[in-house]
User: Fold these one by one.
Assistant:
Number 1:
Amino acid sequence: MTQTHPLETLYSEELYNIRGKVLIVIAKPWSEIQESERTLLGKILGAVKLSLSSVQIINRAEFSVADFKTYQPSNIVAFGATLKNSTKMYEKIIMEGSAIVIADALDQLNDSRKKNLWLTLKQVFHS
């Protein structure tokens, strides 16, 4: 019987599978977000196994990935905010190592837009 070092079996590989930072960008200040919008955001995040407390929420009407370089996000989801130099919405955009999804403001998401958002979020978070 071969003997293994005790530390070789102490930690499983899954322990080190840490998800990258997720930034949520909203166009208006958090204090102006209605309770219904907060609930919707919580449900959207819950669908991809995240919560409001597990993401960073930033207020910007327009942004570039370079604006968030210090945060080193793996994913950026924007609601009502626009990405400089891009008009794509409800598509997975890869820039500077971050996956970005641009959607309408939370209060403007109808059933069709929610479906488009969900399809894109599945690509970003379940790939």
Number 2:
Amino acid sequence: METIQIVLDRQLLDSTDKAAKRLKQNRSALVRMALNDYLKRLEARVLEERDRAGYARIPEDVAEARIWESEAMWPAE
């Protein structure tokens, strides 16, 4: 691991310290966890935007989608 320096305003630092204490973690562990979570959400958003742009360029063919409707339905009980 590498040591870095970041700047946080007092309110964010206090909230971070309180959350770390509640989770029984140190500040660095909490920041690592939060940053990892954020980066995963960011990657998912990038992929969703890519897919959305792709579907906008090549819209869904309604006739083709109907073929698969029966496959997507819940089976009868």
Number 3:
Amino acid sequence: MGRKTQIQPFMVIEDGDMSSGSHIESLPTHCKQTDVVQYVVNCEDGQATNGEITVEASFDGKSWFPLDFGALINLDGASGNHQIIIQQVSFSDIRLNYDKTNPAATGTFTAEIFCTTKGA
């Protein structure tokens, strides 16, 4: 019988306030033995270009490196809903970061994670 590992969806950032502070970091999620990691990020009441989302991974839960998706993931009022799917997981831990890029940033956002395997 094939392996089946799944981490049910749960919030890693809830009511993240884009107007206060310059950095919000989610708690790390242990995703070893999964194949697919998915984040869903929703922004509400934002304005144009509030900040950037980055995803970091780790092999040991201590040293973190950014994952490169080939483009910036911006949170703003017009396109604040994003789905980030990683289909090959070669690390043990993952976390999400928000960095404010606009001093006048407003709004809130949430981030949810889901992890699963593809099959046998």
